[in-house]
Design goal:
Length: about 180
């Protein structure tokens, strides 16, 4: 029994790493930066990763009984990666904690803003959330804001169509960007 719990944890961590790798891969699609005007900066990449993580966590929340541990493990993998990236950028030990806390706060703020935006039938609130969070560094064209809002809505559908069993196994697929 102890071994099954131990191996189950290992499977969860492996699935979390796999899910996070797919999130990062999708977030790094060049079209976001070349066509949709997301700033190709540390902040822009952070925002794209958190946006895709948000989409995954939103889907996993549908079956919390089966996915709570995986959600937490994926969140931990994501923030461990943020920590590692900050260290690679030269942030010292003293500054890491403050920056990670700020990043976590930013992530949860975006979760609230995106949830509220997606709850509306029109894109007005979602576009404002994207403009405030994703495009804070850029004067973005209105058509790109609309395209990004539609992308988020389409990804919700794509993820909702994926079986929880597939996600729990560490496999997630995002739809095309355009």
């Amino acid at each position: 029994m102890v071994f099954s719990k131990l191996f189950g944890k290992s499977d969860t961590i492996e699935s979390a790493h796999s899910l996070y790798s797919t999130i990062v891969e999708q977030a790094r699609q060049p079209v976001f930066y070349t066509d949709l005007q997301v700033a190709d900066t540390v902040d822009g990449r952070f925002d794209m990763v958190t946006l895709h993580a948000y989409l995954l966590f939103r889907r996993l929340k549908d079956d919390q009984e089966r996915t709570a541990e995986l959600s937490q493990a994926t969140f931990d993998v994501m923030f461990d990666n943020f920590d590692e990236n900050l260290r690679e950028l030269g942030v010292g030990d003293i500054g890491i904690g403050k920056r990670i806390k700020k990043m976590a706060s930013a992530f949860f703020g975006r979760v609230t803003a995106y949830d509220e935006g997606l709850a509306e039938t029109d894109n007005e609130k979602l576009i404002k959330a994207l403009e405030r969070n994703l495009y804070k560094e850029v004067a973005v064209k209105p058509e790109n804001l609309e395209a990004m809002a539609e992308y988020l809505r389409s990804q919700v559908t794509v993820l909702n169509d994926q079986a929880i069993e597939t996600l729990v196994s560490g496999k997630v697929s995002f739809g095309s960007v355009k």
